[in-house]
Amino acid sequence: MTAYVLVHGAWLGGWCWRHVATRLREAGHEVHTPTLTGLGERAHLTGPEIGLRTHVDDLLGLLRYEDLREVVLVGHSYAGLVVREAADRVPERVSRITMVDAWAGGDGESLDALAPGFFRDWVESATVDGLVPPTSAASVGVTEPDQVAWLESKLTPQPRRTFSEPTRLSGAVDAISCRAVLCTPGGPMPFPQLAERYGWAATVLDAGHDAMVTAPGALADLLLQDAWAS
Predict the structure, then answer these.
(1) What digits encode the pLDDT tens for the residues 8-54?
(2) Conformational region of residue 229, where left means phi above 0, alpha means psi within -120 to 50, and beta covers everything else
(3) Could you give the CA distance from residue 137 to residue 127 in angstroms, rounded to a whole number?
(4) Handedness of CA 196, 90, 23, 148 (dihedral sign)
(5) CA–CA separation, 126 and 10 (whole Å)
(6) What residues of the chain score a pLDDT lower than 70?
(7) What pLDDT, on the 0 to 100 scale, is given for residue 230?
(8) 164 in active site
(9) What pLDDT was estimated at residue 21?
(10) Range 3-229: architecture per CATH
(11) Which residue among the candidates 77, 139, 153, 170 is catalytic per the annotation?
(12) pLDDT at 228
């Protein structure tokens, strides 16, 4: 049995992994889908003071209090920064990392520093009181009406500081086996380039950016490969 920790990206919550988690559990694995502070069912805790470090501490707390070891950490989009920093802090608890269309930076880099200019400009113009409103379902590749309704009914604003706060890394994370799942390899975000920068093996998944919503079975099948490799 493998212990998976699936960490959601910006504007989402642990709820977004529901169908992926069901498939992994049916295959006999332990699955955790934490919701980061200020998002999803924890939206009542939101505020401009919440940053990347808050979310790293959320994940470290889960690993500690659930006493999780030999974990497969899965980070989607923004959460690539979260899982890498957490793994860097406690590498002895992590066996593998999978980055699903995810951001990755070196020590001192933030999502703002990694993102293309048009995205930073949009974030700056959209931010109100330190919070970034959700994007549309269509912008992340979700177009089927039932999926759009489910997704958009649950999205919550993202604390702006999570994008601007730089990651802190010692380099320990780079010794952990990692691979990339690329959902939008021809899109405007540099996920393929980041995978190449770090030398990760990459698998292309024919799905939109929010693949856990639009292609949960295919994504779960890819994640099950991590159990076989561990």
Answers:
(1) 999 999 999 999 999 999 999 999 999 999 999 999 999 999 999 99
(2) alpha
(3) 18
(4) negative
(5) 14
(6) 227-230
(7) 58
(8) no
(9) 98
(10) 3-Layer(aba) Sandwich (3.40)
(11) 77
(12) 65
Residue with tokens 């070196």: 106
Of 162, 155, 210, the residue nearest 17 (C-alpha): 210
Q: Where are the domains of the chain?
A: 3-229
* Alpha carbon distance 65, 63 (integer Å): 6
Residue ranges of alpha helices (H) inside the chain are: 18-26, 52-65, 79-89, 111-114, 117-126, 145-152, 161-164, 191-198, 211-214, 216-229
Residue with tokens 């999803």: 40
Instruction: Answer yes or no: are the C-beta atoms of 46 and 38 closer than 8 Å.
Output: yes
Q: What percent of the chain has pLDDT over 70?
A: 98
The two structure tokens encoding residue 143: 């177009």
Q: Could you tell me the pTM of the whole model?
A: 0.97
* Size (the chain), residues: 230
